[in-house]
């Protein structure tokens, strides 16, 4: 049986659970990943999380769903998560309560979580996901209300995030020490941390919810506000950072990019 058919069976079964009020999928619902290309991520919203035995029952009824497990995650950023394989493609079903999700999103939009949390989870990325989520089932209009809420990036949030991340970029001690020592691995450790702040500031400046580090170059190429030739120069920073003999050139170019970004952020015309 095809992946689409099995997925539809699973989605219909989840929607039949009394507590479930909304189901969405991240990514492009019209093009499913092949094995090794990515996961199928299903987000389920309800007043209360359906009981474990109910979730076991609906998954066990779909014989084509292989290696299913429930409660793989039992708390945290990814909700109550169940797992299975559809024709070898990893499929995650993540359950959240509508109240918890709403409170979390409002807190993020207020600027309570300006930076990534444990294991590179970006709270702002949850806003990016919900803004673009593909609605599969929406009995009470919950997901559509979330999409409407997130359709306009709050100016106050942009101010909070740009200010926070541009301040973090002022600390260049580790980068400078790595350059002095010609220590490539230490340089890349420090560069990874500071690059994260640069990207988050740049996304906030362009009022775009930062989804994650994936496909950053494609996003940057479409931004209206950015340092000149930003993506090309960022890639050059990384390239020059691959040799101890060119670390100083990498850091010099990096400093120029940060300076230009700071000018964009503080410009009264932005």
Quick overview of this protein structure:
With 270 residues, the protein is of the alpha+beta class. 50% of the residues lie in helices and 16% in strands. The protein has a 6-stranded mixed beta sheet with strand order 3-4-5-2-1-6, sandwiched between helices.
Could you outline the blueprint of secondary structure elements for this entry?
Layout: H1 3-15, E1 20-25, E2 40-46, H2 52-60, E3 65-73, E4 80-86, E5 89-97, H3 98-109, H4 123-132, E6 134-138, H5 142-150, H6 155-168, H7 173-181, H8 184-205, H9 216-221, H10 230-240, H11 247-266
Parallel strand pairs: 2-5
Antiparallel strand pairs: 1-2, 1-6, 3-4, 4-5
Helix pairs in contact: 4-5, 6-8, 7-8, 8-11, 10-11
Explain this structure to me?
By secondary structure, the protein is α+β, with helices and mostly antiparallel strands. The chain folds into two domains: about 5-150, Beta Polymerase, domain 2, CATH 3.30.460; about 155-265. It has helices at about 5-15, 50-60, 100-110, 125-130, 140-150, 155-170, 175-180, 185-205, 215-220, 230-240, 245-265; strands at about 20-25, 40-45, 65-75, 80-85, 90-95, 135-140. β3 (about 65-75) and β4 form a beta hairpin. The protein is elongated.
Q: In the residues, how many domains can be counted?
A: 2
- Helix-strand sequence: HEEHEEEHHEHHHHHHH
Structural class: alpha+beta
Helix run count? 11
Query: In percent, how much strand structure appears in the residues?
Result: 15-25%
Largest sheet: 6 strands, mixed
Indicate the radius of gyration in whole angstroms.
21 Å
* Contiguous runs where pLDDT drops below 50 for at least 5 residues: none
